[in-house]
Amino acid sequence: MPGPEPADRDGNACVPGAVTAAVAVTTHVLWQLVLGFSTMATDGCGPDDCDTWITGPLTVMYLAYYAIYVVTPLAVIASLALPWRRRWRRIRIWLALGALLPQATILGALAVLIGAGA
After folding, report:
1. Distance between CA atoms of residues 23 and 16, nearest Å
2. pLDDT at 45 over 80
């Protein structure tokens, strides 16, 4: 027979990781489209003739896109693996937010590209 639950148990401990995973999975196709269309926008200058204000953000977007496959799952797993106690709630939320850092980087690089007129 299991003992009583501790008073400091966090009943909503899985929420930050689950929300982050849902956002990451549902927006994955969007990031593929953004990266594909951003690359197609540089077809006019070719890979060797583009300025660094175009190739720089594109390189950042590619690195961030590939980081999605490493950073996001590891951060979500880490946020779910922490002890389900209330004192770990802030760290769990920060890990869940950190899991979306590659997606935010892609969005920021897209804003730079749009601002540069590419």
Report:
1. 11
2. no
Sign (positive/negative) of CA torsion 89, 25, 71, 67? negative
- Report the SS3 class of residue 97: helix
Q: Cβ(42)–Cβ(54) under 8 Å?
A: yes
Name residues whose C-beta falls within 8 Å of residue 35's C-beta, 6 or more positions apart in sequence.
61, 62, 65, 106
Give the tens place of pLDDT for each residue, 85-100.
999 999 999 999 999 9
Place of tokens 């590659």: 102
Cα separation of 42 and 88, whole Å? 45
Lowest mean pLDDT among 1-10, 38-47, 56-65, 103-112: 1-10
Q: Average pLDDT, whole number, for the chain? A: 88
User: In whole angstroms, how far apart are CA 38 and each of 9, 44, 80, 83?
Assistant: 46, 12, 34, 41
**What is the DSSP code (8-state) at residue 9?**
B
Query: What digits encode the pLDDT tens for the residues 17-28?
Result: 999 999 999 999
